[in-house]
């Protein structure tokens, strides 16, 4: 959303009582004719005013030469004119008092500088007249419950939508049409669909914000290619979470356009895509990787109660499918507890031929036991509080007549355990699926997709319980950043901010280095200091475990000669002498400034392997201690810090303290600092220490 435009709600976009179509066509197949035809055929109850100076009547409706000739108030105008005529059309709409515009027309910013200028003119008119604009270059709006089919999408030609509670907002019109078509073919009910196009004003975040309090929406799907206002997107996602509405997002494109290339590790890893992922999690949303996944999760969210925990039970007539689902549960962070002894005893008495466990494989022989499958399910449900029950039915639901007895027993279970999530898996007759859904079951043919969807649903609920709301920035005058051009200066600044560093000395001769080594105490480490040399180990600019004055003098000359040979143009500030840091695990602490979301903090395993394994995680700055601990836990290798395989546990409290302090630096100095790279930060059994640091200013 363009921040200078009025923030009034979008009700007249989605629920207009009257709409004018500028550029209306009597041909129902043309762009200017389709919205009229769709609204008439769908039964839209509002008033439709075609505007075209060449016609008195269009598709059976009175046409008007100008929007100014329409009698009475008009809530919304749809403009389908060549780009060069749109500015005047906007002025006419403003004069008529129309405050909501859908601008279907193309030829604006997507066409280059001239189009960008025309788009800016249109938005300036909107800004001056308290108007809101969807588009330009947008596909429009579909309202299923109110039959407001204000679009030219051909997807409506053959696919009649069913009303539901899922709303979809996308930037791309074709993406929205694709999601709409797949959802309708699957029999999913939809509420609203909107494609925002160029997003000169109304964007996907604006639509999510509206859906958050929209009575017709319970589940929100969205797809974005980028974001111009990160704060607006964050607010919208948090608002949806606060109102208990799941948001399933797709972020397509991994381009880092707008992010300055940085020479530090953090800058190279903090691509937009990774940052978006972190923001989604902080705000309670789920990122889907495909349209199918997005719709699967949305379907489960709309169809089932919220799972109260990760605990699940699996009942299957196939051992192999049960193993597959167990693997999928682990990947989806679902738990499969052991069956209670009481349940195991009863099931063993019922199915003496079946192995007892979770997954519970009833085997195909269960067909010889009347209501065997549902009796097993009841035994598990009655003896546990597991909120998720997954049933692999094989081909049972594909034959409606044969499935009838099981179906009736399933309905009894649904009534008996209304708070549980019942997921039925296997090929199913379309009519049977509809009946099962009407009775509170979710049905999918593919076991892996089903497990992934219910696992995502549970994680959405968990994320909603730990939303991150960032504090406001530093008040008063902004702090000034001192000279931090080389490692010594950078670490001195970080030490002033409370981060631990070693006692070190910058030396400019072998004699100074030897004297420093004796003062600090042997053994020592030595490394090159230069603003132009960021990756010191790659040029042989680091030598460790020096145990005598002679070794120190030799190391000084060796490091200097290597640096001059590998980077002859580098300005050498000196050689840093420091005591050996001792044992511990090398980690990386970093910050980056994202052009959309602002300062971000990064943590991962450090040293020279960070770019190879990329085992890192990101979060918005600043952090609280609990945020820092959660960030550490996201990194797979963090197990090394906690006493892996009998090793001593390290000082995670010192690590999280450093992360919190570094995040405050990133937040307080976001106006000057582009990135900070502390690699490595050594975590020891007691305390931690910054062993290297690079601070980069904004260009």
UniProtKB/TrEMBL annotation:
PANTHER family: 3-HYDROXYPROPIONATE--COA LIGASE [ADP-FORMING] (PTHR43334:SF1), ACETATE--COA LIGASE [ADP-FORMING] (PTHR43334). Residues 491-527 form the ATP-grasp domain. In the N-terminal section; belongs to the acetate CoA ligase alpha subunit family. It holds the Pfam family Succ_CoA_lig. Gene3D superfamilies: ATP-grasp fold, A domain, ATP-grasp fold, B domain, NAD(P)-binding Rossmann-like Domain, Succinyl-CoA synthetase domains. It comes from the Bacteria. GO terms for molecular function: ATP binding; ligase activity; metal ion binding. Keywords: ATP-binding, Ligase, Nucleotide-binding. It comes from Orrella marina. This is CoA-binding protein.
